[in-house]
């Protein structure tokens, strides 16, 4: 795996707009619970992009990030064609894990729809736990700046 001294996680929070598409809703017209994990993935991908990186490139370099834990608390339903705003925050980042928190809001009525969290770990090509690469760890003191 190549280390990238010029790449470093510096953006630790991002807002991502999401519009609910028809295949994401159930028979009641509400977003199916399985879609929230997909929305969280979109937030993490955009957070990585905001840091000048992308999953395809880092995976091609041997960096494999897997979900070790995923939680969602549903507060209110989202419906077909709703415009939503997902806030994704990196809350813990060390050489063992990255933890993210999520808030999904419908801006039209400022309704909090769901809150969630995830823990990602880094594994090698054999699937064994491995340290996060240095370039995926924010600089010291990053949490003080949040």
SSE blueprint and pairings:
Blueprint: E1 13-19, H1 35-50, H2 55-60, E2 64-74, E3 83-93, E4 98-106, E5 111-123, E6 129-130
Antiparallel strand pairs: 1-3, 2-5, 3-4, 4-5, 5-6
Describe what you observe in this structure:
- With 146 residues, this protein is of the alpha+beta class.
- It has one domain (13-136): Thiol Ester Dehydrase, Chain A (Roll), CATH 3.10.129.
- It is 15% helix and 36% strand.
- The protein is built from 2 helices and 6 strands; from the N terminus they run E-H-H-E-E-E-E-E.
- The chain has helices spanning 35-50, 55-60; strands at residues 13-19, 64-74, 83-93, 98-106, 111-123, 129-130.
- Strands 1, 2, 3, 4, 5 and 6 form a 6-stranded antiparallel sheet that branches.
- A hairpin with a 4-residue loop joins strand 3 and strand 4.
- The protein starts with 12 loop residues before the first strand and ends in a 16-residue tail after the last strand.
- The relative contact order is 0.24.
- The mean pLDDT is 91.
CATH class designation: Alpha Beta
- Secondary structure tally, helices: 2
Helix content: 10-25%
Oligomer: single chain
**What's the rounded overall pLDDT mean?**
91
CATH-assigned homologous superfamily? Hotdog Thioesterase
CATH fold category name? Thiol Ester Dehydrase, Chain A
Number of strands: 6
Helix and strand run = EHHEEEEE
Largest sheet: 6 strands, antiparallel
CATH architecture annotation: Roll
Q: Categorize the overall geometry.
A: globular
Which segments are poorly predicted (pLDDT under 50) over 5 or more consecutive residues? none
Termini separation: 30 Å
Strand content: 35-45%
């Amino acid at each position: 795996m190549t280390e990238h001294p010029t790449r470093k996680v510096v953006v630790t929070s991002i807002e991502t707009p999401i519009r609910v598409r028809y295949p994401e809703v159930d028979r009641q017209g509400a977003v199916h619970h399985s879609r929230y994990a997909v929305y969280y993935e979109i937030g993490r991908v955009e957070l990585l992009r905001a840091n000048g990186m992308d999953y395809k490139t880092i995976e091609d370099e041997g960096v494999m990030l897997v979900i070790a834990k995923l939680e969602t608390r549903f507060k209110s339903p989202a419906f077909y064609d709703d415009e939503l705003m997902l806030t994704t925050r990196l809350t813990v980042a060390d050489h063992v894990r990255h933890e993210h928190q999520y808030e999904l809001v419908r801006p039209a009525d400022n309704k909090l729809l769901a809150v969630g969290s995830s823990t990602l770990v880094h594994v090698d090509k054999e699937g064994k736990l491995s340290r996060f690469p240095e370039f995926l760890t924010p600089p010291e003191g990053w949490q003080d700046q949040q």
